[in-house]
Design goal:
Structural class: mainly beta
Oligomer: single chain
Strand order of the largest sheet: 3-4-5-12-7-10
Number of strands: 13
Radius of gyration: 19 Å
CATH architecture of the largest domain: Sandwich
Low-confidence stretches: 1-50
Distance between the termini: 52 Å
Mean pLDDT: 78
Length: about 170
């Protein structure tokens, strides 16, 4: 077995931590770390920033503006990274579900990767219902019906990463 990063057929690969190396904790464990016995290939190597502007970006929380989302009362969205920051492949948003918020059953034309930041709320994905909490992650494939409900007295919020491109939202209720 080769110790070089990549797939068996020679394509480059992206690595993620799967187990510690003999009890050691690497200084920078995670994506991009390549140590024998610690990582495994999980997908193609990212292409990096755009050629026209390779400058990394950072935004302060105080600079993010949140707006109400028409889809549901009590749902707000802040664009963390997107076209204004010249992201090449993905947009990252933060959604806030206020207490009592209900987002109707709907589909999107693009997949969603979500990470719950705070609160406890209910998410329906397809025929399954999940109660989620801070630290949970969700994959909502393109075209799969989903909905949200916050029955608690506290806000819930999540990061949502989507690929660049046009997204058509269709409400199913």
């Amino acid at each position: 077995m080769s110790s070089e990063p990549g797939f068996a057929d020679g394509r480059p690969g992206l690595y993620r931590a799967v187990q510690p190396v003999r009890g050691e904790r690497p200084a920078s464990a995670g994506v991009g770390v390549h140590r024998r016995g610690y990582n495994q290939v999980v997908g193609p190597e990212p292409t990096g920033m755009t050629e026209s502007d390779p400058t990394p970006r950072r935004r302060r929380a105080a600079d993010i503006e949140y707006e109400a989302v028409e889809l549901a009362d009590g749902l707000r969205k802040g664009s963390l990274l997107g076209d204004d920051q010249q992201t090449p492949h993905f947009d990252m948003r933060r959604f806030v579900l206020e207490p009592g918020a209900r987002v109707p059953r709907h589909t999107n034309e693009v997949e969603h990767e979500q990470f719950v930041l705070e609160g406890d709320y209910v998410v329906g994905i397809g025929d399954e219902t999940h109660t989620v909490s801070a630290g949970d992650a969700l994959l909502i494939p393109a075209g799969v019906e989903h909905w949200y409900r916050n029955d608690t007295d506290t806000e819930g919020s999540f990061l949502c990463v989507v690929p660049k491109g046009t997204d058509q939202i269709t409400i199913h209720e």
